[in-house]
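Chapter summary example: a protein plus flavin-adenine dinucleotide.
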Amino acid sequence: MVAHLLKQNNPTAKILIADPKESFSKQGLFEEGWNDNYAGMIERIGPDFGGANVAVDPAAMTLSIDGDVMDVDVCNVIPAMKAGRIAELAGITDGNWAPVNAADMSSTMDDSIHVLGDAAAQGDMPKSGFSANSQAKVCANAVRGALTGSTVFPARFANTCWSLIDTDNGVKVGATYEATPEKIAKVDGFVSQTGESDDVRAATYQESIGWYDGIVADMFG
Ligand SMILES: Cc1cc2nc3c(=O)[nH]c(=O)nc-3n(C[C@H](O)[C@H](O)[C@H](O)COP(=O)(O)OP(=O)(O)OC[C@H]3O[C@@H](n4cnc5c(N)ncnc54)[C@H](O)[C@@H]3O)c2cc1C
């Protein structure tokens, strides 16, 4: 998205991504998209080349990657993520996240507390707004059942994450999930392919708009 903007306003700009992780979601699709649409603009430095050894000097506006110091105009630092402090204070975290029972999203450490969305260590689902919404429905169903004795349906979860590579060029990855005693477990999934036609990519983009309208209506309608 940043490259798309810079291509129009500052086409000689460089985007450097220092990434401590070996790989990332939809990597092949993104790398194809960078080559096809933003050739020479985006460079990702993974952990093998120092992506995990980064220091930032905000006063000097410099960045050091594995000892190489460079001037930057904008630096977006994304710290390692974890559940909010309230989860730690409640004593329901194990490491960075709060483990839950997949069937009802209750904390494994205190079943009177339910945790959903990014804070939960739930198993196979990626952390996303779609996932959080899906988990909320399972949780609400279970809580209603516990309070009123109404039928609690077996937990079913779904997620799709769309990304926009360029105008009308959407890609997606998604899956369905079920609750097992150990975790939310993946049942089956799908992912966009490299080399897809413009029509398929445009349809995927339209799908993402439909999803956004749908989830906004679902949450706030
Ligand atoms: C750049 C970016 C792009 C993304 N794109 C997508 C996308 O396209 N589709 C998608 O599905 N997901 C997307 N996500 C992921 C999505 O935003 C998160 O997974 C989702 O917001 C998680 O929801 P949540 O309610 O679990 O947590 P949050 O949205 O983080 O909400 C937690 C809230 O709790 C509040 N809070 C914390 N402590 C306290 C306290 N003590 N008292 C009161 N309030 C407190 C916080 O301020 C925050 O508002 C994206 C995320 C990022 C960063």
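Key point: Residues 84, 86, 117-119, 127-130, 132, 161 surround flavin-adenine dinucleotide (CB under 6 Å).
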